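Recall that a protein's primary structure is simply its ordered list of amino acids. Everything else, from secondary elements to tertiary packing, is in principle encoded there. The following example makes that idea concrete.
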Amino acid sequence: MDSTHASKAIYTARINKAIDFIEANLHNPISLEEIAEAANFSKFHFNRLFHTAVGETPFQFVSRIRLEKAASLLQSIPNSSIAEIAHRCGFTDKSIFSRNFKQLYGISASQFKKGKSLNSNISQQQSNSQQQAEKPTMYFCPESQTIKWRTNMKLCKEVEVKNLRKMTLAYVRNIGPYNGDQQMFQQLRDKLFTWAAARGLMNLDSTRFLVLYHDNPTTAVSSNLRMSLCLTVPENTKVDGEIVRMVLEEAKYAVAQFELRGSEFELAWQWVYGQWLPNSGYQPDDKPYFEQYAAPPQDGKYSIRFCIPVKPL
């Protein structure tokens, strides 16, 4: 890697560290100085550096991510009050939250909560999903000592709710549209796998490949969607260049196992959110969700696990 590309990779990695810091602290007051420090940049130059890389100032980015997170929570946990959700997303003043929410979405938070969102196609997606399969049935699995669900959804093998252990991840990130962009996925995979193979990290039995999503596309108002391609690595792994390290703490996940062709991913996600979740007794937890690939595709089919953080309703 020449010096120009190496320098750009370091900048990219530092901006991603800043974004990780923001995501981990959305519920707290965040200063420009703290974000810049997380990225190891001077606060006097950071505003311009961040804007050039992301297309928004740090303040604009934090405000948008907080509001999009609130919109997602209004959909997923309708029993919570608007004030509670605003507080969870870092707003100490409900009136400021309400004003900013309406400015971003064009309707009030209460209207959005009642299902009058601009992204009303989600209700149509849920309706379509319900036509694909009957309600899942729950049973207790003696072998794993967990609750599992049987389903008539042809693409889904089973769904299980269980704790996933803490994982240290090395990742490379894309910020922007990604749906259907196979060339972009391939470029990121090649970059991550080349880095890992050169360090002997691809031969470990415990290595897992994840695609982690940070934003809810049904409530996002920006095309700056964040998606990270990740490999599990030992916790003391040193990273460099554009490769960054992060930790997913142990948490409870709904793990849905599928065998899918590339064109079937959207249908599978619609079924999980539109059919399984409403009948499960769980709601999405406030953490990133991810796809875990068990093996390379065979005959155009992917053996894959959808992992959605959940908590009781």
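Confidence is low (pLDDT under 50) at residues 117-133. Residues 168 and 234 are 7 Å apart (CA to CA).
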